[in-house]
Amino acid sequence: MPATSTDPGTSRNRSWWGWGYADAHPDDAECAALGALLPGTLNRPLPIPRIADLPIGKPAAAPPPSLAHLVTADPQARAAHAMGKAYRDVIRALRGRPGRIPDLVAHPTDDREVADLLDWADAHNVAVIPFGGGSSVVGGVEYRGNAHRAVLSLDLTSMDRVLEIDTTSRSARIQAGALGPVLEAQLRPQGLTLRHFPQSFEFSTLGGWLATRAGGHYATVHTHIDDFVQSLRVITPAGAGTSWRLPASGAGPSPDRLFLGSEGALGIITEAWMRLQERPRHKASASVAFTDFHRALDAVRTIAQSDLAPANCRLLDPGEALFSGASYDGSAILVLGFESATSPVDDRLANAVDLARTHSGHRRRGMADGNAPADSTVSAWRSAFLRMPYLRDALARMGAVVETFETAATWDKIPALIHDVRTEVGAAAFKITGHPAIINCRLTHVYPDGAAPYFTVAAVGRPGDEVEIWDDIKAVASEVLHRHRATITHHHAVGRDHRPGYDLQRPEPFTLALRAVKDALDPHRILNPGVLLD
Amino acid sequence: MPATSTDPGTSRNRSWWGWGYADAHPDDAECAALGALLPGTLNRPLPIPRIADLPIGKPAAAPPPSLAHLVTADPQARAAHAMGKAYRDVIRALRGRPGRIPDLVAHPTDDREVADLLDWADAHNVAVIPFGGGSSVVGGVEYRGNAHRAVLSLDLTSMDRVLEIDTTSRSARIQAGALGPVLEAQLRPQGLTLRHFPQSFEFSTLGGWLATRAGGHYATVHTHIDDFVQSLRVITPAGAGTSWRLPASGAGPSPDRLFLGSEGALGIITEAWMRLQERPRHKASASVAFTDFHRALDAVRTIAQSDLAPANCRLLDPGEALFSGASYDGSAILVLGFESATSPVDDRLANAVDLARTHSGHRRRGMADGNAPADSTVSAWRSAFLRMPYLRDALARMGAVVETFETAATWDKIPALIHDVRTEVGAAAFKITGHPAIINCRLTHVYPDGAAPYFTVAAVGRPGDEVEIWDDIKAVASEVLHRHRATITHHHAVGRDHRPGYDLQRPEPFTLALRAVKDALDPHRILNPGVLLD
C-alpha cells in the first residue's frame, strides 16, 4: 500500500488539512506575527487539527478481494482525501467540520485496475472522486450529497511514470498521476520539459491539470495545458479509448477538448501524450513600475497585442505589489519575462519595456542581461508567489478570511470589471464583517483580446462563521463577474463551488450536450457527482 | 430573392459545376494544352455541362407561406447547391451524374429565419444541408440517402455582415455567411483583419471555416480557425445559444470546441465573435532549395521547433515545386515568410534561413528586404496556389483524375508516411489505370511535434470511370494514413467522403459522446445527415 502522506521522490510529509508540506507551515509565532498585520484577527492561532478528532467511521462498502490490495480504509489516508485546498477546506478542517470523509481510498497502478475499480463502483453505486495532487480550490475532490452508497477517492499518484519519450517529435507519454516535479525529473535527462508550472506545481498532477484545464507557465499564447495535449487516454464506465497522437487535426470536433475540463465527471484520464519543449537557454526579465494602474492596463494590452509573446507578463496592482514585496511606494508593478531555447531574448524584453514606457511605465533597477538571474523585484515576487498558499493557511489559523478567485474577460470590460469587483466585494465584505477588507488584483495571463484578473481578498472573520462569511463574499464576487460576462474561472476550474456561476454561463445547447454525454459515458452517475452537472 | 450564382460585392458569375468564377475557367484550348502534359488524356475537353440537361424535378416539399419568400426551387439555384467542389463533384457534373439535387434552397437573413426554417424542416422530415461558399472537397454539402422527405440547402450567404467591431479587444461579431473577401472588406477600414486565408478564401464563408475547422494563413502556431474564436452563436433544433465572449476560460470543457468541426451536424453556426489582428506592416520572405528532401524535412522540423514562428513555412517536394513553377532543377523548395504588425521580421527570416542552411539548404536568389514584395519563387508559388483548383478542373475536362488529400502526423512518422503514400498510392494508381501517376507532396502547416503533408495525385482516367478510379485510389491512400495513425484530414474536414477513415480514427468514448450529443440536439436527425455520424 503506497503511503498517502509522503510524496513520491521526497520524504516530506504532506499536510492533510492545509497546503503543501507540513514542515513548511509557519509555526504559531509566525502565524501570530502575520495575524497582527490584519486588525481584528485572533490573538493566538487555531490549533492544528488532529485526524484522531475527526468523525471517521467504518466504510460503508468494501471492495471484492480481487481489488482489496488497491484500496485502504486507513483514517489518515481518508482524511487526506476528504477535501481540496481552498480556504473553505482549510477552515473546515481547522473548525472540525471537514467535508464528507471518503469511505475508501484506492491507488490503482495501471489502466486495468482503474477500469476494474470503476466496474465495481458502477455496480455498487459507489461514487468515484478522482484525486491527483488534491490541490483543488473549488471543491473538486470532495463528495457532497447522499445519493451513493459509499465514496471512493481514486488516487492516481501511483501511476506517475513517463512511459515513452519521442525526442524527434518532442513529446512524451506520461501517466496522469505524475506530480509536476515527478514528471519533470523524468524528462530532464533528455533536455526536455513540459514547462507547465502552475502555482500548485509541486502538489498537482498531469491528470489534474488536464481535467481542470490548468493555467501554467506562459502568460501569453499557450496559457492553458490544453494546447500541449497530443493525445489522451480516457477510461469511462461505458468503455475506454485513446485519441491518436496528432500535432493537429480537422477531423470532427476535437475529441480531446471534450475531456479537457471534464473534471472527472465524464471519465478518468489515465495518461496523455504531451508536447514538450527544450529547456530554455536564454532568459531575461524586468519589472516596470506605473503610478497609474489604468496606464499599466493599457501598457499590458499593448504588449499582449504585439507579437513579442512574453513568457511572463504579470501586472500587480499596488496592494498586490506591496503584499508580495515587489513595491512599497504605491506603484503597480509589471513583471516581464522572456525565455527561449533558440535565441537571445534581450531585444524582445527591450521592445516590451519600450512599449510599457510609452504608457508611462518606468523600468525598475538595472536591466538583467540575457542569462543573468531575474532582477530582484522579479525574484521577490516569485518567492512570494510560491509561499502565498502557506501564508493564507497561517492567516486562516488566525481567524482571517483569506482567499483568491480569478476570471477572464475581454479588454473592453477589464477596467470596469476590476473597479466593480474592488468596490462591490469591498462593500460586501465590510457589510458582512464590519471591517474593511483588503482586495488586491493582479493580471496573471494576458491575451490579444483580453486578460485574466486574479483577486485576493483578506477580511476579518467571526470565529466559527468563516465559511459562511467567505461564501457570502464570494457570492457577491460571482454576481459581479456574471454581470460583466466574465468567466467564473480562468484556470481554477468549476468543481462544486463554482457551479451556480457555471450554470449561468454555459450556453444552453452545450448544457444539453454535456448532459447527454454524461448519460452516455457515466449512466449511473458515479463519476465525481456534482461537478459540472447535477 | 438573392441571386445564387452572382457573388455579393462582385458581378462575377460563380460556376455551378466547377471551381470559382465561370469567367476564370481555362478555355477549351487551354484545357487541351494542359491535357497534353499528361499522356493518355482525351484529345478534346469534355463539354461544360448545362443545367438544362440535369434531372431536376418538382420539389418534394414546399415551405409554408410564412417562409416562402426565403426559399426557392429555381433549377439554377438547386444545381449550384447540389455538391461541393471536390474532383469527384466536378467529374460527376461533367459526366451528367451529379449528386442528389436539393429540392429547395433557402436564404435566411437572420437567426429567427434560420430557427423557423429548422422548425419547419424538423416537423416535416426535411434534411437541412448548411451551405456557405460551397467549397467542400469532402462531400460535406450534398445529400446522400433517402431517409428524408425532401432536401433543403440552407445557404447562409445572405447573413454576411460584420455586426460589431471592438477595437479595444481587437475582435468583431461577424455573421457566418460572410465570404472571405466580404468580411475582410468590412474590417479593413479599422485597420484590422481576421487573417484567415485558406486556398478557398474567395469562395468560402466564416461559418464554413468554423464548422470544418479550416486551416488558414499561418503555417505555424495558430494554424486553424479554432484559435481565433471568442464566442459562437449556434442554432439547433433543440434550441439556440451563444457562448460568452472570453479571451480564455477554464470553466468546463470548451463549449465552442464541440461545435467547431461539427460540420453542420449538431447545429447551425449563425455568427461568431472572432479575434482580429492588425494588418501586418513588416513582411519578409525567402525560398530555400534542397537537393535532399529528407534534409529538407529536418530543416523544417528544426524551424518548427524553434520559436521563430514563420507565417509561411511550406515545403514543396521536387514534383510540387516543378508543378508550381518554383523550381525546375529537381530541388525541393522551402517557402518561408514572416509577418508582423509590430516589428521588423528580417532577423527572424535570417535566423530561419540559417537553420535551413545547417541542413544543406541553399537560399534562392537575393534576399527580399523587410517591406519588399516577396521573392519571385514565392510569388510564383502563390499564384500557382490560387490557380490550382481551376487547373484541376481543366484537367478533369481532359479526362484526367486529379485530386488532393492532406493529413497530419507526428515528426517520427513523417518520412515513412510520405514514402508509403508515394509508393503505395503510386502502385495502386498504376494498377488501376495502367499508367504511372504523378504524386506530389508539400507540407502546408508545421508544428513542433509534427507536420501536415498535402498530396496531389494526377492519374489518367478511363472515360466514364473517373469517380470509381479516384475512389479506389483514395481508399488505398486512406489505408496508408490509417496504418500510420495519420489523421484522415488536417483541414479539409470529414464530410461524407472521409467517413470510413474518421470512423476508425475516432476514439470510442468520443463516438458514444458524439452520438449522444447528436440525439440531444438534433433528435430527428435532419441536420446534414451522414457527415460525422450515421
Tags for this model:
Uridine Diphospho-n-acetylenolpyruvylglucosamine Reductase, domain 2; homodimer; alpha+beta; eight-stranded antiparallel sheet; Vanillyl-alcohol Oxidase, Chain A, domain 3; globular; 19 strands; five-stranded antiparallel sheet; 32% helix; 3 domains; 16 helices; Uridine Diphospho-n-acetylenolpyruvylglucosamine Reductase, domain 3; 534 residues
Helix content of chain A: 25-40%
| CATH architecture assignment name of the largest domain in chain A | 3-Layer(aba) Sandwich
Give me the number of helical elements of chain A: 16
Number of strands of chain A: 19
The secondary structure category of chain A is alpha+beta
Describe the oligomeric state of these chains in a short phrase. Answer: homodimer
What is the class of the largest domain in chain A in the CATH system?
Alpha Beta
Residue share in β-strands of chain A: 15-25%
For the residues shown, what is the average pLDDT of chain A? 94
- What is the number of domains of chain A? 3
Largest interface: A-B, 99 and 98 residues
CATH fold description of the largest domain in chain A: Vanillyl-alcohol Oxidase, Chain A, domain 3
Model description:
Two copies of one chain form a homodimer. Chain A is of the alpha+beta class. The first copy, chain A, folds into three domains: 22-155, Uridine Diphospho-n-acetylenolpyruvylglucosamine Reductase, domain 2, CATH 3.30.43.10; 162-278, Uridine Diphospho-n-acetylenolpyruvylglucosamine Reductase, domain 3; 282-483, 3-Layer(aba) Sandwich (Vanillyl-alcohol Oxidase, Chain A, domain 3), CATH 3.40.462.40. Helix content of chain A is 32%, strand content 20%. Chain A has 16 helices and 19 strands. In chain A, the strands form four sheets. In chain A, strands 12, 13, 14, 15, 16, 17, 18 and 19 form an eight-stranded antiparallel β-sheet that branches. Chain A has a five-stranded antiparallel β-sheet with strand order 5-6-10-8-9. In chain A, helix 4 (87-94) packs parallel to helix 12. The model of chain A is unreliable at 366-374 (pLDDT under 50). At the A-B interface, strand 8, strand 9, helix 8, strand 11 and strand 17 of A face strand 8, strand 9, helix 8, strand 11 and strand 17 of B.
